[in-house]
Design goal:
single chain; about 350 residues; alpha/beta; 2 domains; 8-stranded mixed β-sheet; 15 helices; 8 strands; about 40% helix; globular; Nucleotide-diphossugar_trans; hexosyltransferase activity; transferase; Glyco_trans_2-like
Length: about 350
């Protein structure tokens, strides 16, 4: 009788991957200076069930080494590296690689309150009709001291969001938000055209499909310093902010959004052509004249050119004589003379 053939034991089935409840998404570019306290504030959260994705966007400093050092000590951290491609590409890649249904944004220069994630996840669990929840922030300077940023806090409930949009007020503090990943993906993630204001454009697109809120608690310490994006790209931010609002109005009116599939916004002066109607360029220049009149960085750069174009186009010059005086105070008498000449000619 032939001997029984004994088959080898079957290999054990691979254990299913455990999906965390939250993915924390951080993009880093030359952020070595503030990166360690930002990472530590995430690791110190009272809510523990998360994966922490840190994408190094081709940093030239020691950011990658700092991130890898923390990853070696905490298995929840996954470091992603690639060449520099910018924040919008980084955010979309983080969304694609996140495994959890909820994503918490975090920047490499800010600091989370220990209960931030716990409070936001509890809110989203209790409010299934809300897709995004942010928090108010505490403004600090580069040394962690209070920073007098001014302005208004963000709207607390969804009912106040439309009013805040119409009044062109801040809607969310981007590194303080937690959102439902599938909803953000359903509207196409972050749009390439809105570089430096990609978050504001996203909130305006999400406002049409979900409810949004902010917890009236300061659960993020938001850092201000000379080298941050909002200081280096103030004029471009204001242009993008204004165009995003106009695109929102187009969608509200049932018209197509011409910015949805373009890589970069055209310069002011070509926006009438983009939107297919007159008055868009004039509206954007009027907004720029108001918004940039107090920005030393913008007035020292091309912001002044936009204000002068607004004056020469017959725009409202109320308050711009004070901008002339402000330029003198800023130590820019030549620019003050240029604006004064435009104001005289525009009377």
């Amino acid at each position: 009788m032939a001997a029984d053939i004994i088959s080898p034991p079957a290999a054990p089935a691979a254990a299913p991957a455990i999906i965390p409840r939250l993915s924390v998404a951080m993009s880093v570019y030359d952020g070595e200076r503030f990166l360690a306290p930002a990472i530590e504030s995430v690791l110190a959260q009272t809510f523990r069930d998360f994966e922490f994705l840190i994408l190094d966007d081709g940093s030239r400093d020691a950011s990658l080494a700092v991130a890898r050092d923390y990853a070696a000590r905490d298995s929840r951290i996954r470091v992603i590296t690639r060449e520099n491609r910018g924040l919008v590409a980084s955010l979309n890649q983080l969304l694609a690689e996140a495994r959890a249904p909820l994503v918490a944004r975090m920047d490499a220069d800010d600091v989370c309150h220990p209960e931030r994630f716990e409070r936001q996840i509890a809110f989203l669990h209790a409010h299934r009709d809300h897709g995004v929840v942010g928090t108010w922030s505490e403004d600090i300077d580069e040394f962690g001291r209070p920073f007098p940023a001014g302005g208004h806090d963000q709207p607390v409930n969804d009912e106040d969001f439309i009013g805040a949009i119409e009044d062109d007020r801040s809607l969310m503090v981007h590194p303080a938000v937690t959102y439902r990943r599938d909803l953000v993906l359903s509207v196409g993630g972050y749009h390439r055209a809105y570089r430096h204001v990609e978050d504001h454009d996203l909130w305006l697109r999400l406002a049409g499909i979900t409810k949004m809120a902010n917890l009236p608690e300061r659960l993020l310490r938001y850092r201000h310093y000379a080298g941050q994006v909002s200081n280096r790209h103030a004029t471009e931010q204001q242009i993008g902010h204004s165009v995003a609002l106009i695109a929102w109005r187009e969608r509200q009116a049932g018209r197509p959004d011409p910015t949805a599939d373009i890589d970069r916004l055209p310069p002011v002066g070509e926006l009438d052509q983009l939107f297919g109607r007159k008055g868009v360029d004039r509206e954007v220049r009027a907004r720029l004249a108001r918004a940039l009149a107090f920005s030393r960085t913008s007035l020292a750069g091309d912001g002044l050119d936009h204000i002068i174009a607004h004056v020469r186009g017959g725009g409202d010059i109320g308050g711009l004589w004070r901008t002339t005086a402000r330029l003198v105070t800023f130590g820019m008498p030549g620019r003050a003379a240029r604006l004064a000449a435009a104001l005289v000619a525009g009377r």
